[in-house]
């Protein structure tokens, strides 16, 4: 088993290296070498205005951008990049290293009719941004952080301008000032370390020779009544930079304000320390007191008077209802948990360089497939420990259940994307690759895991189960399953709240968010919180002579998923205004998927932690 795991880890490490290399190897240019400019899909900028979640292909026929000779060709992209809506094509820009400095060049002339003008104007009003890539770097606008006066690069730049005085008819940006920052690596060898674009709208005559004069010109307003010519122009400026290639991403990844992350992290750590102190007080003090009293009573008196959690010693390991579903959920949760853990470790080690777009999603999917063996193993062992007999069915559903559900949701979402005609829709071929990855690698590995799990068999329990179940006295209200789940979910949710906000904004506004350090720490804090809260509630439950803790500990662990769901709906209602039905369906679909996966992961942590604690608890007392 360990040999298999080790070789899996090795192959994963190697393959993730392979993910990393294409984007990570520096590219050297000599003077006059061709520098390719690739165009990615248009995305809405997050400016609090109108966030349509849809992305549009750059070469959407209605946008009328200049096409390269022979039509656009698609550039190869990673699986994750495609999933996240990357649609990268080549472009007609003719850029040569260190040549044509500051020369005004015409890209092409094109004509838009009234219909197309309306389409473009609508996209400008929705604050769509252009996304270009040069040498793996996204084109950005240089901005100043108003609070700190620091310069930072904001990825993407505006399609047009609809601020004052252009609210009525927006101005289309048809001129691009491109500043390419280069670093001289050695004599005659150059590397690109920064891509900045300032878009301008230059109106007036669109037919004659271009001057690229950006000052004192009227903007280009598109009439929605008749057809009209547009001339696209650009000017490249080569600017020497002292930034070495290795740190070229630093300007892009400046976290807007790291203080808020620190604040949230300190906040979560305080919560965790508070919790740990509380749990250790309760569990260590009262439990050791209980145990010594239980064991003392036995020695001094013949008649045994039981109280507290010892009363249910004959019940705690009674099989819960639906042990198979619980086993399957735990197995899948463990699989997801390992996936998240390994992905975060890779991210922290720097394997998932942002220079290789989409690598995060790719690594996550590959990890998930390979950790099928962990899922199968955990599921099968938990299932037999809970007294399950139908091991084959358990192995089968573990291997296929979750992938099928997730796949169905993704398929449905994709369907909505297709309806909305968005280029974010996953192509059929990619869906096929994912299905192959899941059902071709994950499922067999899961079956192998189940085989080893059932060979190792059930976990031995320290106390026997009574033949006749006990009556359960009515317990306090807060220990009822749903109130306990909601109550206990607040703490882990509170610990993760701020990071969640940033992840949401980056997911739904296509902004780079790479504070992996903060995410990893937050995930660790959340895991510890979930485990301690579940143990605490399980202890309370057993003290109240409520012995049906299996399902409840899972629910208590996963309780934060309900808060995440509620928060997502709140975020939608307060910050996003998605008007079309398909955008709302998409948002809700992603949100549901996120909450579902979170429920499985944290529920598994809660259940396994409680299982461990219950076994420890009942091994410590003497029972005749
Ligand atoms: C390009 O032009 C700008 C502005 O005139 C100048 O600062 C820069 O040094 C020039 N770059 C090269 C490589 O000549
Ligand atoms: C070129 O770089 C220098 C700093 O290295 C900067 O001050 C200047 O504004 C840059 N030029 C352009 C056109 O961006």
What does this structure look like?
It is a single chain. With 624 residues, the chain is of the alpha+beta class. It folds into 3 domains: 18-247, no CATH class; 314-470, no CATH class; 485-624, no CATH class. Helices cover 50% and strands 13% of the residues. The chain contains 14 helices and 14 strands. It has helices at residues 2-24, 79-83, 114-125, 258-300, 323-349, 359-370, 372-385, 391-419, 428-456, 481-509, 516-543, 549-557, 560-575, 581-619, and strands at 34-35, 37-44, 95-96, 104-112, 128-134, 137-138, 140-144, 151-155, 157-158, 160-161, 171-172, 175-186, 189-200, 228-240. The strands form 5 sheets. Strands 2, 5, 6 and 9 form a 4-stranded antiparallel sheet that branches. It has a 4-stranded mixed sheet with strand order 4-14-12-13. Strands 1-3 form a two-stranded antiparallel sheet. Helix 4 packs parallel to helix 11 and helix 5 (323-349) packs antiparallel against helix 7. The longest helix has 43 residues, at 258-300. The relative contact order is 0.12. Residues 1-24 and 47-52 have low confidence and may be disordered. Bound molecules: 2-acetamido-2-deoxy-beta-D-glucopyranose (NAG) (2 copies). Keywords: Membrane, Signal, Transmembrane, Transmembrane helix. It is a multi-pass membrane protein. The chain crosses the membrane at residues 262-284, 333-353, 359-383, 395-419, 431-452, 484-504, 516-542, 554-573, 585-614.
